[in-house]
Amino acid sequence: MNKEYIDKILEYTNLQNVWRVKETINLIASENVMSPLALTVYMSDFMNRYAEGKPFKRYYQGTKYSDELEVMSNELMGKLLHTDMVDIRPISGTIANASVFRILAEPGEQAVIAPVQAGAHVSHTKFGTLGALGIKQIELPYDEERMNVDIDKAIKVIEQVKPKFAVLGGSVYLFPHPVKEISNAIHSVNGKLVYDSAHVLGLIVGNAWRNPLDHGADVMTSSTHKTFPGPQGGVIAFKDKDLYKEVGKTIFPWFLSNHHLHRLPATAITALEMIEFGEAYAKQITRNAKKLAESLAERGFKVIGEHLGYTMSHQVLVDVSPQGGGAKIAKMLEDGNIILNKNLLPHDPPEAVQNPSGLRIGVQEMTRFGMKEDEMDQIAEFIEKIAIKKEDISKVREEVKEFRKNYQKVHYGYSSDLINGKYVNLLNLLI
Ligand SMILES: *Cc1c(COP(=O)(O)O)cnc(C)c1O
Fold it and tell me: Where do the coiled-coil regions begin and end (predicted)?
């Protein structure tokens, strides 16, 4: 028996759990935590099983409960997104994009995407999924002043190029992309509009961000684990019936065989939480992001987007080049138990990716742990102590740990008290 390895595996996993869940201020904009109830159902026998194909039309036996749960997950997500055409099978946001892009264009055909400065995800680009599918990328023009797609110039590009589809939505963005205007333009050349809501899904279902499906998008692709605090996974929601059918035929068998069934009950529980608490959760996130931006600016940081009110999303962008650059400051903050990522800012050249001038900050996870505006001010103070005042980092780390002790419970979600006495935990069946 390889006890040494086993002990190491247990040790690292344990250290990860305690450090990242209990002791750090996590500000990674693409992460979140599930509620105790979602986590409980996530750890189920579904994680051992297969269910190729669609509910009630599977290729294997033994799927009657996953069939029910898949239909239910699609239904609940559809309720939140105002459509009855949802497919929860993509196992990630990238797979959701691949499934949709592949149907909308053949290799060699063209797509227009949001400008990279306005936050487009790598999967929208020639370096990612779009490129892997052989679809040509054309970037829409950028309006520096509005930090967004340049609408007039974008319409001209679309009319000229006549692309098969346009992609909006992104990974680093503070303000909503112009869905209505771009959808009108792309529809006028018989193309489709894809909105990738991976980052903002939790804001959309909480009515703190415009639902792109209500404003002209034909299809919405997403992850289910960023501001939407579910298990890691993907989802596609449609307004276009033909597209719904076509994409449904290709997710399996083109882009996956099994779709990781333990996501289904956990996503359904998270959807129910968003139906009940989503609005309060999303509103608090946007208030917190604005407050954090203001507080950082007051303390002398160069916060992006001041002239536009800093942010409308869960994100805050800070230019830390005066403090030594994104790479250096992100590492110093990590040593102080504040976890975030360095990021290219709209004005950075693409080559600066290893040492960009910015930090990307997301407040969704700390909001879920119950933090409000006062706590955002406290977080700004910790960041100031490390990045500007150059205080002893190990001392700040202890303060961060102490502060974090008061925010250990998941809010806006269901507790394990709802588990009825008959529920049998997978682990208990095996020991
Ligand atoms: C995170 C992200 C993705 C990719 O999602 P995964 O679930 O990590 O594959 C796609 N699009 C956008 C805009 C993202 O931010």
Answer: 379-406
Q: What are the distances in angstroms from CA 297 to CA 291, 301, 304, 325?
A: 10, 5, 9, 17
- Domains in the chain, CATH or no CATH each: 39-273 (3.40.640.10)
| Residue owning the nearest CA to atom 1 of ligand 1 | 198
Residue 422's pLDDT is 85
Cα 308 to ligand 1 centre (Å): 26
CA of 356 from ligand 1 middle (Å) equals 20
Q: Coil, helix or strand for 347?
A: coil
Q: End-to-end distance of the chain based on CA atoms, in angstroms?
A: 19
User: Which residue type, as a one-letter code, is found at position 240?
Assistant: D
Question: Does residue 120 have a known ligand-binding role?
Answer: yes
Query: Would you state the structure tokens that stand for residue 248, as one six-digit string?
Result: 């449904």
Q: Name the residue of 123, 173, 200, 235 to mutate for ligand 1: max ligand atoms within 8 A of Cβ.
A: 123
Percent of the chain with pLDDT over 70: 100
Question: What does the pLDDT look like over 363-418, one tens digit per residue?
Answer: 999 999 999 999 999 999 999 999 999 999 999 999 999 999 999 999 999 999 89
Model pLDDT for residues 68-119, shown as the tens digit of each residue: 999 999 999 999 999 999 999 999 999 999 999 999 999 999 999 999 999 9
Distance 310 CA to ligand 1 centre (A): 23
121 marked among binding-site residues? yes
Minimal-distance CA residue to ligand 1 atom 15: 171
Distance from C-alpha of 407 to C-alpha of 368, rounded to nearest angstrom: 9
- Specify whether the CB–CB gap between 310 and 376 falls below 8 A: no
Per DSSP, the chain holds a count of helices (H) and strands (E) of 15, 17
Spatial separation of the C-alpha atoms in residues 208 and 201, rounded to whole Å: 10
H helices of 116-192, in order, are 129-132, 151-161, 179-188
298 closest CA partner among 283, 313, 318, 312: 318
Ligand 1 proximal residues by C-beta, below 6 Å:
30, 92-94, 121, 123, 169-171, 196, 198-199, 223, 234
